[in-house]
Each structure stands twice: as C-alpha cells, then as structure tokens.
Write a structure and sequence with these properties.
2 copies of one chain form a homodimer. Chain A is an alpha+beta fold.
Chain lengths: ~425, ~425
C-alpha cells in the first residue's frame, strides 16, 4: 500500500490557463509546490505555477477552495507548518482542487482566471517555507561517505555501522536561510600544523554540499515511533539544500561529537516545497545493495519501500565566480548526480529518526546528506570533486578552484523526468559567498 | 567591567512577607527565578518565592510593576522568550522592582501583600520556561571528557582539540521536557558482538548526565559574532539539565557524526530559570589550567571572565528505585560536584558558539555537558560512576546499579552558598524511567 498514488493531477496532457506553466521546466500544472512569499510587506502562502504564484488566501476567499474546507484555516498562516500538519487525505484533496482550478477549460479554471489570484514571482520575495523547529542532517550517500572516509582513513574508508544505520546528527535550525541570501565566510579555529597552536581566522576551505531537504508532514508524539510502512504519511515534500561547510574548521573540531561551527554559520534551502504527491510518478527502486552489504534490519524494511521508495530526482551544481559574472560568462556546471543513488530511502531515514521515540514535528527539516554518485562528476561537494584540493577544477574564466572563493555563487538545481510524465523541478538554491 | 553586579537585591538580611521564602533552601527573596506555569488551564509567567509563585500578569495589572513599563508587554506571553530578549538593564530593573515588592515593610510590599498576586506552587503545574528554538550541548568538564576518553582510548584519553575548543554539538529541541515528565526507555540499534549483526531493541545501558542549562538572553544576528567581554549580556540564566543517554545506542551510532538517537529521546530541565543577576554573588575563578594546558586563544580571553567567570553552583544527583519508594526509603545521593570545575566558562561557551557567525536567539538553551569533578564521587553520570558498569553501586534497598532500571527516578539539585550571602537554589530536576 503506497501512500502516494498516481491520479489525474499527474496527467501529462494537462495544460494550465497560466501560459508560462505550459513551457516552464520546473513548475507546470503537474507540480504545484508550496511556499511562502512576501509582497507589499505581507507574508502569505502560495503555490508556484509557471512564472506566477497562486495566492492561497485570495484563492480561498474567492470561493475556489470550497471543496476543501478542512484546509481553510491553515492558509491564513505565514508559514506552511499548519498545512503540513494536515492529514495526507486533506493535502491530496487540496492538490486536486488546485489542479482543477488551474486547468484550461475546466469549469473551475474558467472561473478562476478572472479572480486575480495570481502574483508574479518577479514581484515577490520568497522566504523560508516553514518555521523549522528542528533540523537534522543525514549522511545517506554511501558514495559520499566512502569518498570522505578514503581521505580520512585510507585503509578503512567506510565505518562498520554505515550499512546498518542511517547515520545522522542534529543541525542548527536558526541559521537556515532561503535561496538568494548571501553567506558570510565564517571564522573559526583551524590547525594545519599539529606542532603549532591552532589559529582563529576566516576559513580557507569553504565548501558547499549538495543535498535534498525532506520536510516532515504529520508528526509523532514523544515516545511514539511509527513503522516504516507508515513513514510516507510523515513526509510532506522536498526542497534543495546547501549544507555549507568549512572543512578546515570541521577537521579540527569534529572529534568526538561531530561537526558544529563548521556547519552552523548557514544552510541554504530552495523556497518551493515539492510535495510527495507531485513526486509519485518519479518513485523508483532504491540503490541495490552490493555483495557484503547487509539487508536493512526489520524496523527499516518495507516491501513497498524496497520496490520504489527512492526518489528519481536529478541534481546538479553550477558555480559562477565574480570574474565570470563580470565577463558575462554563464555559470559552469561542475557536478550532476541522482537522489536515487542514496543508500537509505526517505522512509528509512524518517523511520529511523523516530525509532527511539524522538518526536518529529510538522515543518521539521531532514537533510539527506551530500548526494554523490559513483562517477567522478557525480561528487556533491568540492572536498570530493577536487579530492581535498589535490585535483583542482578550472572554470571557464581560467580561474582554478580547490575550495570556494569570496564572490563565488553556488547554484543547485533539481528536477524529475520520466517517459510518459511531464517534467517537474525543485527550482533553484543559490548563495554567494561574502568576505 | 562585569555585566552582573551586586546590589541591594542580594542583601542577605532581606526578608519577605511571603513567610515560606525566609526559610526556603532555594527560593528566598534573594533568588527570584523566572518560570512558566499552568493553573486552571491557563499558562502564565511567574517568579518563585518560597512555596509560592508571583503571577507576573496579575502583579503588573495591580500596578505593582509601574516602574518598569519596558517589561510590561513581555509579561503577556506564555513563555519567557520575550522577557529574555529584553536588554539587561530592563531585566535588572524588573528584578529590583520584584525584590522591593516582596520585601517585608517596604511600601511596595505593604501594598502587594493584599493584592492576590500569589499562586501556591502546589496548585500549579510547571511547564517549559521558554520556546527553545535551538538546543546545543557542550562537553565543558575536562574530568568528564578524560574519564570517558579513558574508557574509549586508554592510551590517549583527551583528544588534542579539547583544551583549545569548547567542544559542543547540536541537540534535539523537540524532546526537551520539564522536570517530572516520565521518560520512556528508548529502543535502538546496538551491537555488543562485532561478529554478529546489530540488534534493535530497548536500551540496556540507560544513563543520566548531570548538566546545567544556560538560557540565552539577548541574541545576535546571523553572521555577527560578539566579543567574549560582551558575552554576559547574551546570557539570561541557568537551570538544571538531565541529558538522558542510551550508552549502548551511542557506542554503535556515534561515529563519525556524534550522538543522535542515543540522546534525542528525552532531555529534562528544571522549570525555574535562575538569572545571572541572582548568581552574581557566586561568581568565582575558573578552574586553573594545569601544566601542559594552554591559555585560551584571544577570542576566548577576557580578564574579568578569567577572574570570576565561573559559577559556584553545587550540584548533586540522587537515585530512587521503585523498590526504595515502596519501602519508604528516601532517595540516595550518589554524586556531588561543582559547576565551577568546568574547563570552560559560560562566557567562553556562548562566545565560541557565535564565533563563526551562528545566530543565537533568546530562549535558546546551551547545556554545559556532564559536570564531573576530579573525585570519584563527583562523577556526573553512571558511565563514569560505575566505570562502564564494572564498579556497580549498591542502593540502600540492597539493589545494585550499573545503569538505570525501569522505575528508577533520578533527582538533580543545585544550589549556591557563600559566606555573607543568602543561599539560593536551582530547585529540582526529576524524571522516572518507564519501560
């Protein structure tokens, strides 16, 4: 029994009366991601459609959501938490109502197009979509874990627990910022020379990490775990996530309790949350376990999840230096990978998180960890791509990069494509480094 | 220049018209800790005085806080965050007004005692004092770090970074509960036998950790660290904190990103926040650095802090088993230690946390880490006290403990005593283990 099924909202033939949606790479009528935006000083909830945003309060007040009264109260909030907390059935009915209302020629669509419910994205500022009470970061790519392990422990790259436990740790919620917010290079303690004292100063090995964020939908009370077969009901949707990392600070501070200041100076997320319903056509088989890799323990095993619990999201990272921008050179793609290459599925990640009784709450954010694939150009951070700086990359401007320089902009994109379905996308996650 | 100075609110001769305060071990008129309580279905802010609570809204509405109009709005909230966000000068004026109002014979006191501003603690339920957006746990006791290190790495107990960096990591905010809330024994993956697969089941090595929690007062914006000399303005007050820990889960999961499910099933805090102003008489010199231990780096060095930046808080842990309670045996004290034995001061901890640009917010909670001293009976957790279970302790009931059993209640207490000053206390932090 899958929580997310295909229905008429996924029909690739659907067209919207919002013209830009029909040629938009990310936000056609088959997607309908949720977000929060500011316009004229007011913060509101919306749904992306092409180049526009459906203003959800205006839509409700125009009577266009009369079919889903159970969702009405949640639309008044400034962030998505209350909407995320609604039962999956209510969220699905809201998606259906929005889809019908945005279709060309549907009775609802003919009415809606005259009701002034759209805001142009160019006229709005996107903000964080939810009040993120807790943020957790996982480490679900075995390729990333193996690459990092090879640099630290060449003889023993993958720790014994990796193939048994979805490794994760708590992150900092307060420093999560929306795409576009500049990121200040952090200072911290580093120690390159074990014979000399550490020094305190700006990080010289600043990195990005390409991740996907999972937003929690229905929560669970403290002390009440849930079975993996029910994990789907606890997930609301996904965004892109850049887990900015200061590698020199991390190396010196992380023993024995994990990364801390190396990560908590900023985490950037894309503003549109693509729902699990929208992703239903792109569910796929998880990465096959290789010889020597054990099957998951019973509490992480579900037949449906093992069949198509992974998400087929293509991901890419582009880099643009200040010099490239001043020369008019477009950003350079430096890696591409797939979310389906994770060792652990979203259902396993969320189930494990709550398995000891930890209470997850609507709006909580779970990062997947760096999404790296097996190929060299599928490595999701500079640490791996340049192999700790020993194999620098060259930009179109002729500049060389081992780690990020001031003025560098990192741009992440994600999208889903499959024969027989309309492509949908996660939009962009951008951030530029300030000195 | 110290942020916290002595004034007439610390006068040991002060008596209150609330009689129970004058003989109360923790909450005399010299203390005045803040908290949030529920009575008749309503949640309100209050100040502990003896066996009673000053209802702050009722006090304001009776005109007894007219001297501090800048604090009035913050008193309407259900939690202390807005009050914590007020400037230190406003918070100090509020303390002075409360002190004057509660004094025997003062004009304000004579008026106040007839205004019905008290609620008996026995009639109220204490709740979490603040909305804790982010919770961070440090590792500031060198005795604890050394003991734990000896068990894991006998040849190299203390890692090289320990004496340079206040080691910390992000914790889980959602599972923080107030004193008295029962704690369910968590399940999780453990692996005692490296030749066999791990198993998933209830933890068999459940432990407490005696800590003190530091509540953040004034916050700092993202990307804007502050100097250690200003750290005092960023601290609001302290509470007791029990960082419940499942040692068997921790051992198997913690590499390489730190403890996760071993800690996030519950963290218990005492409900009354003792302010930094109340603690002013008990500031003392930090633990002296021993030969081979470097002085702190410049960003963590402040002359005032090095002179009296530590807090002289005495701490103790008592244990009561279900059998002891049924036999009418009082809880057995199993350890006692002092907060002044930490290697890092509160100012160093909070300054380091923000030093890379991380934004701290009013109401954020920072645990000190297990407060252990050098003596064997000053070890702040069972892992140390029983040396990983190899030296079990015997309870008055004849029962033996290596780790916590179902039905065990852990009771933490903290207090400050100094010649020439009235003793004040932090109250209690209790929790009983459920199966």
């Amino acid at each position: 029994l899958s929580h997310y099924h295909l229905d008429d909202t996924h029909d690739p033939a659907l067209q919207s009366w919002v013209d830009s949606a029909n040629r938009h790479p990310d936000f056609p009528i088959q997607n309908l991601p949720f977000g929060a935006f500011r316009v004229e000083g007011e913060q509101k909830l919306g749904v992306a459609i092409g180049d526009a945003i459906v203003d959800l309060v205006a839509t409700r007040d125009a009577g266009l959501l009369d079919a889903v009264p159970e969702c009405h109260a949640a639309l008044d909030a400034a962030v998505l938490n209350e909407l995320m907390a609604l039962p999956l059935t209510a969220r699905s009915r809201l998606r259906s109502a929005l889809s019908r209302m945005l279709r060309t020629e549907s009775p609802e669509g003919i009415e809606a197009r005259h009701d002034g419910i759209l805001v142009q994205q160019a006229d709005a500022d996107m903000v964080l979509p939810a009040r993120i009470s807790d943020y957790t970061d996982f480490y679900a790519s075995i390729f990333h874990a193996t690459n990092v392990g090879k640099m630290l422990r060449p003889d023993n790259p993958l720790l014994p627990n990796y193939t048994w436990i979805p490794i994760g740790y708590h992150g900092r919620a307060s420093s999560i910022v929306p795409s576009g917010a500049p990121v200040r290079r952090p200072s911290g303690q580093t120690r390159d020379d074990a014979a000399a004292p550490p020094i305190f100063g700006p990080s010289r090995r600043l990195d990005y990490e390409l991740e996907v964020g999972l937003f929690i939908g229905g929560g669970n009370p403290l002390g009440a775990p849930f079975p993996v077969a029910e994990a789907g009901a606890h997930l609301f949707g996904v965004c892109l996530l850049n887990d900015w990392s200061a590698r020199d600070i991390q190396t010196w501070e992380y023993q024995p309790l994990g990364p801390f200041l190396a990560k908590n100076f900023a985490t950037t997320i894309s503003p549109w949350v693509v729902t699990m319903e929208a992703l239903a056509p792109f569910r796929t088989a998880p990465l096959a376990r290789r010889p020597g890799e054990p099957p998951p323990l019973a509490y992480l095993t579900d037949a449906d999840d093992q069949e198509h619990g992974a998400l087929g999201v293509s991901l890419e990272v582009s880099l643009s230096s200040a010099a490239m921008r001043s020369q008019g050179v477009v950003p350079q793609r430096i890696s591409q990978s797939s979310l389906s290459d994770l060792f652990w599925t979203p259902a396993q990640i969320v189930t494990h998180h709550a398995s000891g009784g930890c209470n997850l709450q609507p709006g909580d954010l779970l990062g997947t960890g760096t999404v790296s694939g097996e190929a060299k150009d599928a490595r999701g951070c500079l640490l791996e791509l340049t192999w700790r700086g020993t194999e620098p990359i060259t930009l179109p401007s002729g500049e060389v990069r081992r780690f990020l320089e001031d003025g560098d902009e990192v741009i992440m994109r994600g999208w889903c494509e499959r024969d027989g379905f309309r492509r949908i996308g996660l939009g962009e996650c951008r951030g530029v480094i300030l000195p």
